[in-house]
Amino acid sequence: MSEPKAPTPTPAGDTYKGWVFKWTNYIKGYQRRWFVLSNGLLSYYRTQAEMGHTCRGTINLATATITVDDACNFMITNGGAQTYHLKASCEVERQKWITALELAKAKAARMQAESDDSGDDFSPSAAPGQGAGSQNAEFQSAMRMLGSKVEDLSTCNDLISKHGSALQRSLSELDNLTLTGEAGEKIRQVTERATLFRITSNAMINACRDFLSMAQTHSKRWQKALQAEREQRVRLEETLEQLAKQHNHLERAFRGAAQANASADSKSISGPGKGEVSDDDDNEFFDAMEEAPEFITVPADPQFHKRSSSNVSSFNSEICQDDQSLNEEPLAMNQESPSQELVPLKKRRTRIPDKPNYSLNLWSIMKNCIGKELSKIPMPVNFNEPISMLQRLSEDLEYHELLDKAAKSHNSLEQMCYVAAFCVSAYSTTVYRTGKPFNPLLGETYELDRQRESGYRSLCEQVSHHPPAAAHHAISDRGWTLRQEITVASKFRGKYLSIMPLGTIHAIFEKSNNHYTWKKVTTTVHNIIVGKLWIDQSGEIDVVNHTTGDRCHLKFAPYSYFSRDVARKVTGVVMDKTGKAHYVLSGTWDEKMEFSRVMQSSRGGENGTEGRQKTVYQTLKAKELWRRNPLPDGAETMYYFTALALTLNEPEEGVAPTDSRLRPDQRLMEDGRWDEANAEKQRLEEKQRTARREREREALNQRSSSTSEEGVPHENYKARWFEHTEDKITGEAVHVYKGGYWEAKDQGKWDDCPDIF
Predict the structure, then answer these.
(1) Any idea where the PH domain is (predicted)?
(2) Are 685 and 439 in contact (CB under 8 A)?
(3) From CA 198, how far away is CA 165, in angstroms rounded?
């Protein structure tokens, strides 16, 4: 760690800065932070770049206690509300900080003692003081009411105990009397019931006693915590007021400097227009991205691109070209739209029947499991959503316009940004979708023909059942092809289920001949047993351009209760084949993605988890790549389907007889007839097992030397529209579309399709 570049410790009126290690939690331990001591306040930031916009914490030294633990460690606390465990790099450095802190504390204490009103913490203005007083009165009234209720509960506790004991004594005396016949039997019944009442009352008394003990123990602690929060709020208001003044001062200073630079540039650059563009570019530099897990982005130095007039003009023209390429995308779409508008388009549906509110009877499921093998237990449709996995796979094309823009891009690195955004956008539909898609039957297909609306056609087929594998092929008139084969592996880990998609996704662009590949990250479904289901995406993706060698490394940060970052965060860096960074990506997989051009990069900042220094990127202002479309009205009653998902199961004429739209159990579930759907689902699964046994018999007759076991794929089954081959890029054994489907659809010839429904 570098030594803090600060002067000799001075009184609190001056500023003292430097790097100090701060204890964060038991997972990360001590982390290096940038501390600033000024005007009796000790503030800290993750990096020096954050001083202009994000303060991570502030402690008032006027009421703080400074304790030295050992040669390098010391602690600062202000009565329990805030505690900083700090560690200096050496004993000399620790002593410098202790001296500066003690001086600052002494001066802050003198200033507080000399104030006219002892309640200065609540007197920034008259109105806040009155508001705090009224809130305090309401709090005291609520506490008095709660106290009276606790007293009433204590009294009732004593009365129940007293009367219960008296009743038990009376019954015991009555039981000792010598009685015969029916009277004795009645007395015994009353005694038994009284005993049960005593047991129940004792349990309630014990619970009430525990509650009273906890309430009395924590009451004072809650009062202190509330008072500390109120004081903290006042200190934050003061800090915000100071920050607002500083921001106003910096803004005025920046405007003055910008005007001076504009007048200077107008002399060296021909034409006043170029000087104005340069100033606008300067403004862009002062928008920095938030710190990412593996790198840090800070605003680029305005002097970076002012070395010469030629550099300025070329740099500005490059930015103008980028802006033009981004802004002209809708214009290019509009130029193609007139020819499309001449043909009437099919009106797609915007609603499906609402999801029925059926309660799930676990006992009915368990009854069906008695005496059956685990692989043959039918899972009810209550856990499903009314689309198949093939339709779910086709839903990756929700934001196909990202690939359209990538196909029109002339820069391979900019094209990489669009492809990376498309990778992330595929997960935006999963944030609320906790239902399980239907497992496709072997040979089941699904077509998504949007050629007239959006220029692309998509075909999926279930090519294997054990293990389940689906092949997908999509081609667009706008110059791109997407293909993939996905096999899903899952692991149940008690509280959550991890779903790991296996397989590689390929995107090929005709104009540039660029070939991209990437894989999917792990999907985790939490609260499987108890609680509300929620989904998280975590892992890393490497998007590789095999034509140019460009690479984009994306990181999906897993959700952490202790993390201060925004939830569902995604970060990435676009690099060329030499490893030089050109763009930084940032955003969330459920909302939006942005990209920033990298101007400079350097090693520095906070050390990573593996002891390596993070890379600091100086970037231009971020531009939006992708934003999630809003959900349709009433989506919460329609399985949280997107506008595209609502149309996936819409009936269409001319599709193959194996299409998922024709699957009867799925259609019955969509219509809300779940009991019939469960029965139909069981029939289809049994029919699939019968067809499998028939194929085993045929394979056994053809090759008597080979044997088959349950769950092992058979070589005699071949997919109808995809052929098994070896991928030339990855070397994996995959299924690739061999053609013929759309021609068969045009001719209406489906003779070779199996009967699976």
Answers:
(1) 13-106
(2) no
(3) 8
In CATH, what number is assigned to the domain containing residue 101? 2.30.29.30
- Residues contacting residue 451 through CB under 8 Å, at least 6 positions apart: 457, 477
Q: Is residue 19 a part of any domain in this protein?
A: yes
255: confidence class by pLDDT, cuts 50, 70, 90 = confident
Check which CATH number belongs to the domain holding 676 and give it. Answer: 2.40.160.120
Confidence of residue 167 (pLDDT cuts 50, 70, 90): confident
Mean pLDDT of 238-267: 76
Tokens of 325: 């390429």
CA nearest to 264, candidates 311, 319, 317, 306? 306
Distance from C-alpha of 472 to C-alpha of 445, rounded to nearest angstrom: 10
| CA 450 vs CA 75, 123, 243, 346: distances in Å | 64, 65, 53, 10
Which structure tokens are listed for 713? Answer: 């794929």
Instruction: Take residue 626 and report the two structure tokens written for it.
Output: 């992708």
**pLDDT value, residue 569:** 93
3-class secondary structure for 21-77?
A: EEEEECCCEEEEEEEEEECCEEEEECCHHHHHCCCCEEEEHHHCEEEECCCCEEEEE
The residue segments making up the domain with residue 736 are 353-604+613-627+649-700+727-744
Last residue within a domain, chosen from 59, 89, 112: 112
User: Rounded CA gap, 591 and 75, in Å?
Assistant: 40
For residue 543, how many other CB atoms are within 10 A of its CB?
23
Average pLDDT over every residue of 329-354: 61
pTM of the shown model: 0.57
Decide which of 85 and 314 is more confident: 85
Residues 6+ positions from 177 with CB-CB distance below 8 Å: none
Please say if the pLDDT value at position 525 is more than 70: yes
What angle do helix axes 329-341 and 309-327 make, rounded to 10 degrees? Answer: 30
Q: How many domains does the chain have?
A: 2
Q: Is 675 helix (H, G, I), strand (E, B) or coil?
A: helix
